[in-house]
């Protein structure tokens, strides 16, 4: 091969390639560890961390062995953390969704659902309450005693919009809750006012 051709295609430094793999593995490990608690990312943090393990093992044959092994360890932590969070019952979104669907199906078989609105505050009176009833119509109540609650019966939870707003004058904390068949659907706390939608 002529010298000019060799000059156009310089030989790549293997150490630089291994270093790039080590840093890429480290980045994958960070994504795996930081993304583990985010259930909305589903299984992607585990996949990225798995890729980081492969890159880290390859990089360990180069000059950056410490960085490569550290990256592999970080990737393993990310994978283990993701698995633990997703297998834990309180944080398992798939299990919670399946349980809710099962309860909805059972409630439908029993001819309807019970939706309960709740307002909780430390002050004795709630200035104003607005909520949507089983037909989706807005109902209002003024100057009610705290805590306040009302239960509604509906045959169609999925096609009805439910919402609750509670206000207090004293700028105290107030918490609103929406429950379906005694299962908490949403809960919000605010100062002076709280809004929940389901």
UniProtKB/TrEMBL annotation:
Transmembrane segments: 15-36, 42-61, 66-85
Pfam (any one): Mycobact_memb
InterPro entries, alphabetized: MmpS (IPR008693), MmpS_C (IPR038468)
Source organism, top-level taxon: Bacteria
Subcellular location: Cell membrane
Assigned GO CC terms: plasma membrane
Record keywords, A-Z: Cell membrane, Membrane, Transmembrane, Transmembrane helix
Predominant place of localization: membrane
Keyword Transmembrane helix appears in the UniProt entry: yes
PROSITE patterns linked to this entry: PROKAR_LIPOPROTEIN
Protein family according to the UniProt entry: Belongs to the MmpS family.
Protein name: MmpS family membrane protein
